[in-house]
Amino acid sequence: MKIRIVAGGPDHLIPELKNYDSSPGDLWVGVDRGTFILLQKGIKPAYAFGDFDSVSAAEKENILKSDIILNEYQSEKDHTDMELALEWAMDQKPKEILLFGATGGRLDHEMINIQQLYRTISSNVEVKVVDLKNEISLKLPGKYTIEREDLYSYISFLAFQGEVKGITLKGFKYPLEKASLKMGSSLCISNELVNKNGTYSFDSGIILMVKSRD
Q1: I want to staple 34 with a disulfide (CB 3.0 to 4.6 A). Which of 6, 164, 168, 208 is the partner?
Q2: Model-level pTM?
Q3: Fold match flag (2-132 vs 138-212)
Q4: Where is the Thiamin pyrophosphokinase thiamin-binding domain positioned along the sequence (predicted)?
């Protein structure tokens, strides 16, 4: 099972969601205004989470008429709507969770949405933040194979916290061998694969990987 969560980020930064169309058993989930965005795009979410303070009365009425399982919260609470939805999604033990509408709006919400990936990193669930131009994920130490994609021209690696040690890039335009990548360093920004696939590995730390397109 895969779960796709749509929050209320700027509409123009949300990719064509039907390109991520669900297989039987997969779920779409709306977060606050993301629920209305899904309905506008002809996708009925199975569940919705939020205080719904970012929708108009007419939009909320549309949501209420849509026979969605609604998890409604008070506006004043200790967790964001996205965090509550992600916690629920992780409890379902899916194979993958994609987060849409999580970037491009308020910077505080964008930053915490990306940091939410840290809550999932030790699980067996692959969780990514996806918008029109980027795909963001966190990686623990190890060796990974990565394939070149027409959609994403650039691949960047950032130290998520502290220092990443022993980073090695093979099959990239700018290869590395057992390098150190410190938080705040731009050493691994805007790299490219030169072959159909490549590998990256590192010994310690946490990497924030961003695939991007122009």
Answers
A1: 6
A2: 0.90
A3: yes
A4: 142-208
